[in-house]
Amino acid sequence: MKATIPRFWHRVIILAIVLHLIFCIQALFALSDGGMVANSFFLVFFYAQCLLMFFLPPRYPIIYSPSTSDFHVDYIAFCGKMIVAFPASFFYSLYFLGLIRVVSIVFWTSPPPKIRDA
Could you say which of 5, 14, 15, 118 has the lowest number of CB atoms within 10 Å? Predict the structure, then answer.
């Protein structure tokens, strides 16, 4: 059991990093259109990250200029927004891997039921 617990946390951290990299890449691609979320699929799938990103500091990284209808991106604030959204990626990975672990324990590692003769 001792080897299982650290392996579980390693998997949680690795999945959190992978999920967060996907979130950061889609946000980076959405910057060219003047937004922080690429489309509605990413908005729904990364809803917790989007909430943290929009409501926590630093300031919003996209600065619009109404006179020229152009926008400027502050990449330092963008990186700050990505860092702020990481805890949601961590909890997503914890939820997914914990759910997989519980299902595997319940369905695959439990002993078969004993049948008693009457």
Answer: 118
The β-bridge partners of 73 are: 62
Q: What are phi and psi of 104, to 5 degrees?
A: -70, -35
- Residue in the structure block whose two tokens are 């997914």: 96
Distance between CA atoms of 2 and 26, rounded to whole angstroms? 37
Long-range contacts of 64-71 (CB under 8 A, 24+ apart): 64/34, 71/34
Task: Give pLDDT tens digits for 14-49.
Answer: 999 999 999 999 999 988 888 888 888 888 988 989
Q: List Cβ neighbours of 91 (8 Å cut-off, separation of 6 or more).
A: 48
